Amino acid sequence: MKKYLILPVLVTIICQAQTASKPNIIVVLADDLGYGDVSAYGSKTINTPNIDRLSKEGISFTNGYATSATSTPSRYALMTGMYPWRNDNAKILAGDAPLLISESQLTLPKIMKQVGYKTGAIGKWHLGMGIGKTDWNKKITPGANEIGFDYSYLIAATVDRVPTVYIENGMVAGLDPNDPIQVDYTKNFEEKPTALTNPELVRMLWSHGHNNSVINGIPRIGFMKGGKSAIWKDDEMAIYLADKVDTFLIENKNQPFFLYYGLHEPHVPRVPHSDFVGKSGMGPRGDAILEADWCIGKLLENLEKQNLLENTIIIFSSDNGPVLNDGYKDDAVEKLGNHKPSAALRGGKYSLFDAGTRVPFFVFWKGKIQPHKSDAVVCQMDLLPSIAKIVGVKVNQKIDGEDFSSTLFGIENKSRKKLIVEASGRLAMRNGNWILIPPYNGPIRNETGNELGNLKEYGLFDIKDDEGQLYNIASKNPKKLKQLKSVFNQITKGYYNQNIEQEKLR
Ligand code: NG6
Ligand code: CA
């Protein structure tokens, strides 16, 4: 591939975009979708034609990164352009956690509003809401709407955490005031069944964690009572949220819009619609990926119907790498066959190895981007300043994110030089084709079976020759090691602590 892709026509278009045009922008973030979980990068064990269309007709990034190997910190970086490890609370949040982003912080949707965009957030949130001790029967504020979204329709945290209801603009959607909803993460409500007291209610078995309230036959994390009319239907979630997205597009098609669309697939519990059950041959996890692909098909179809496809940028990625057994016995391991969710990369969700944060990453801009593959290192944290650039907003404060609009929108093939990635509070660094993993005390794997990347000594990997990070060449390259350690220490400024307490899954 050519190192620099200079496309004069595109340069003109982007320059125009910088001054006048305001393309709609949709950021789609899948949940736990691995680098090998889409056929776009060549996997033959899964077929994701709609996601592949974004890849084929746009830029297919083979070195696209989330900042973190779990959801909350990853989403925090995407929304704020800041490294999540600068915020001590940017760890996997409970379902009743307060809003993680301060109301005065710069956010991606706030940037868009500055230039007249209507902004929406639909789907998985996991950035907290309210100020703590939430009364779910009243308006929950501050939330997405207070940090830049005109409209929000959200899953508060994850599909395996209570409350299992949608939150529309800070209100529990469809709540019957005569059946108030209560949520607790420390103790159960009297006489409410859990997976431990009433295993007969459970239709999906848990393997670790996930043994609190049973909702729709699925044991969850956290306790919940009441709010029956508002409880979501797990198997209809994809269609339901796709409809919300469609409504948002229709209602906002007459002015530029920015939409953050958080897909819930293939995060646990995996409960795809009956249309997808059994279709992947890999059990619920594979079927959920097919469902996510359907969501992208629906999105493209709806954009086309509204005549919006030509003027809408779609950025597709995943919040972190893949995991098979994330707490339910759902056959993800048993029915995997030859499928490789991390492709040739090492690790997965929770891991400092590459597959924790290197994820599918596609940028689609019909008619404007010359389709191509890019090996440039790009990161979700850079979306804020890069999008700001193309819509003509100046970012006036110091953030970690950098403007990579020329790479992300197809003018050149410039890589982010230094990227710190995070997994459960631990940090590593990608620099060119090198990956540096400092030593950490902790287990080799967690309950999921994924390797965490806890090494006894410094790890140094050259992923150009060793994509699977099988060979630690630190001792053979003392000079390189020293140089990278110094770069790492300079960026992380004393944050690094070998004995950092790693997030427990239980
Ligand atoms: C873990 C959960 C896991 C998942 C994860 C968050 C247990 C044992 N495990 O604590 O199932 O919910 O948190 O995933 O409870 S994420 O993709 O949203 O970061
Ligand atoms: Ca995730």
Q: How does this model look, in words?
A:
The chain is α/β, with parallel strands linked by helices. The protein folds into two domains: 352 residues, Alkaline Phosphatase, subunit A; 44 residues, no CATH class. The chain has a ten-stranded mixed sheet, with helices on both faces. It has a four-stranded antiparallel sheet with strand order 15-16-17-18, covered by helices on one side. β5 and β6 form a beta hairpin. The radius of gyration is 22 Å and the shape is globular. The termini are far apart. The N terminus is likely disordered. The structure holds 2-acetamido-2-deoxy-6-O-sulfo-beta-D-galactopyranose (NG6) and calcium ion (CA). The site of 2-acetamido-2-deoxy-6-O-sulfo-beta-D-galactopyranose has 19 residues, from loops.
Features:
single chain, 506 residues, alpha/beta, Alkaline Phosphatase, subunit A, 2 domains, ten-stranded mixed β-sheet, four-stranded antiparallel β-sheet, 18 strands, 20% helix, disordered N terminus, binds 2-acetamido-2-deoxy-6-O-sulfo-beta-D-galactopyranose, binds calcium ion
